[in-house]
Design a protein that fits this description.
Length: 228
Amino acid sequence: MLKTAKSLLLATLFSVSTLATAAEPFTLAPLPYAADALAPVIDKATMQIHHGKHHQAYVNNLNGQVATFPDLAQLPLEAIMSRMSRYNDAVRNNAGGHYNHQLFWQIMAPAGQGGEPSTELQKAIERDFGSLVALQNAFNQAAATRFGSGWAWLILDENNKLVVTSTANQDNPLMDVVDVQGTPILALDVWEHAYYLQYQNKRGDYATAWWKLVNWQKVNELHRSALN
Ligand code: MN
């Protein structure tokens, strides 16, 4: 009798845990470097809270929407973005938050380890902005003028032109609900949670220092794969 009850309990636990896994298709990948690897530009505590608390919350909240929108579990994140108008604000905020932060961790590297723009990307930057410095100025301006919380972006548009833009909240240029659309190749989080511990209200200082962390090797790869 006891043995049967125990088997039943184990079977129940097993099926509950299987269900829980199926309902939580989104997971938080570890940072691709140590939490203190980006210091002194971004301090360890900011990275730990930003990744472990904020990004984790977007993942958890997105998993919480799968029961309402089962197709979320079947689609790549990019595909979810391109049909965002079909979903609610919770999906928009949390799928956006998950995509944006996954990209953000990847396009940064410890200072001195990110390499340089490829010849191909450098030529495209000169064609569309005049110089890398001019691109950086336009990008930092987008970061500075985004009111409240949001992101600054470098995207490749449908004509293979590089464009600087910004979005509010956790929106991104892959979403069908934003004005300026394209494929992100570089992104800067300008939410206060990304910089406030170290930079307080000085978003401009954060944006300027942040260029030391750009992982050009990853940006080059994203640029190449976005070309059509
Ligand atoms: Mn963030």
